[in-house]
Design goal:
The protein has 422 residues and is of the alpha/beta class. It has 16 helices and 9 strands. Strands 1, 2, 3, 4, 5, 6, 7, 8 and 9 form a 9-stranded mixed beta sheet that branches. Helix 6 packs across helix 7. The radius of gyration is 21 Å and the shape is globular. The N terminus is likely disordered.
């Protein structure tokens, strides 16, 4: 799943030529057997691939630093070790002496989110061109951060025993400290998308001393309260207490969905005639939704070669718990096990009153993961939230914050204007 994902159109071709059901199209072992046993079908798929020129784009499957270099920008690679031993790869577009901005990706994503649309649309480039020093984090377990001082992600189950709680408590605190030390600054601007905002709210709730290190925070598609979620992920929320069943469907520790999970979700999205079928081979779209004319479809091969970028099953389960509880709180281990972890039967709620940093919320009406009502609840509970800004396009969705054709005019220009306030 971390390399080039079977593209949507290529997946449809597999369906057409193999006769397998769409819900099985992510069973890569079955796909391999089909192609190896029928050279004629393989040849036809290869011909289609050449016709669509899926290999032509130089950024397909390329690491973030390589994409940055190709655009003509400088790039650095840094490594940050967390207090609990995870080794995180951080990417920088260096602008020495300029104010640092830290960008944090969302669920199943990576630093590639901020650059894969090129210098005309990629937020990292646009900020660099406006005089900022750009740092891009990579959360534990994703493509770039599968390292640990003692644990092996391929053999040690304990490596994957984390949620976005640990990402907020350990990862971004370590990365922020590293950036400030490297740049000789006392504060930075933080921008996060989706889970990148969740981590931020966890960090400042757990470690309020970091408020002083944040000059501004811009939350793109903020995720904390989740009672209004319209994502297909909500389909599993009622079953979240059946942990063993859920984890077996997801691939136990690392989020590598089995064909059984795809059949479960695919009934709604991947059936014949569904307009979502063309991209249902990508797990990211299945979770956050896809419903926008703002996506440049010619960029799909690049997007799908970088996402999904890896996650722990526990991250997904934690979000499902949030949907059920309608609260922003720590991971729920169950009525009795919570006593061992927290000394109480219910998981503690994050204390948002401790967050005093200047925060701007950017949201949209058609966001399947961040409902406007949930954004309002978050806004009302943040002591120093300076504004919530609705993207002025009703169709704008969760992924458009990164990849929309008109994202600069609809969203980024607002952010640039707010940055200039200080």
């Amino acid at each position: 799943m971390r390399q080039i994902v079977v593209l949507g159109l290529l997946s449809l071709a597999v369906v057409a030529y193999s006769g397998i059901s769409p819900a099985r199209e992510l069973d890569l072992s079955s796909l391999s057997r089909i192609l190896n046993s029928n050279p004629e079908k393989l040849q036809k798929l290869q011909e289609m691939q050449r016709l669509w020129k899926l290999d032509d784009h130089p950024d397909i499957g390329k690491p973030t630093p390589d994409m940055i270099r190709r655009q003509g920008y400088p790039v650095e690679v840094h490594w940050v070790t967390t207090e609990d031993g995870y080794i995180l790869e951080v990417h920088r577009i260096p602008n020495p002496g300029k104010p640092p901005i830290f960008l944090q990706h969302g669920l199943l994503c990576a630093s590639s989110d901020w650059v894969m649309m090129g210098y005309t649309h990629g937020l990292a480039y646009l900020l660099f061109d406006r005089g900022y020093d750009i740092w891009m984090g990579n959360s534990r377990g994703n493509t770039y951060s599968r390292n640990h001082t003692t644990l092996n992600p391929d053999t040690d189950s304990e490596f994957w025993n984390f949620s976005w709680h640990e990402m907020g408590h350990f990862d971004i605190t370590a990365e922020i400290d590293y950036v400030l030390e490297q740049t000789n600054n006392t504060e930075l601007v933080y921008m996060g998308h989706s889970q990148g905002t969740t981590q931020f709210f966890v960090m400042l709730s757990e470690k309020p001393e970091y408020n002083a290190k944040i000059k501004q925070m811009h939350a793109l598609a903020p995720v904390a309260f989740m009672s209004g979620v319209r994502s297909p992920l909500a389909l599993i929320a009622p079953f979240v207490d059946q942990i063993e069943w859920i984890m077996s469907m997801f691939g136990v520790d690392e989020f590598l969905p089995s064909s059984g999970f795809m059949e479960f979700i695919g009934q709604a999205l991947c059936n014949d005639g569904a307009w979502t079928q063309v991209i249902c081979s990508n797990v990211l779209f299945l979770i956050v939704g896809f419903d926008s004319k703002q996506l440049n479809e010619t960029a799909l091969p690049v997007i799908m070669s970088h996402t999904p970028a890896g996650a722990a099953t526990k991250q997904i389960l934690h979000y499902a718990q949030e949907m059920n509880s309608a609260k922003f709180r720590q991971y729920d281990y169950g009525y009795f096990d919570n006593m061992d972890h927290y000394g109480q039967h219910a998981p503690p709620q994050y204390d948002l009153s401790k967050i005093t940093a200047k925060i701007y919320l950017h949201y949209s009406e058609n966001d399947w993961m961040s409902h406007p009502n949930d954004v309002v609840e978050l806004f009302e509970k943040l002591p120093n939230c300076l504004g919530k800004f609705r993207v002025p396009l009703p169709e704008f969705n969760h992924l458009d914050f990164l990849w929309a054709i008109d994202v600069k005019e609809l969203l980024y220009n607002t952010i640039f204007s707010l940055l200039n306030r200080e």
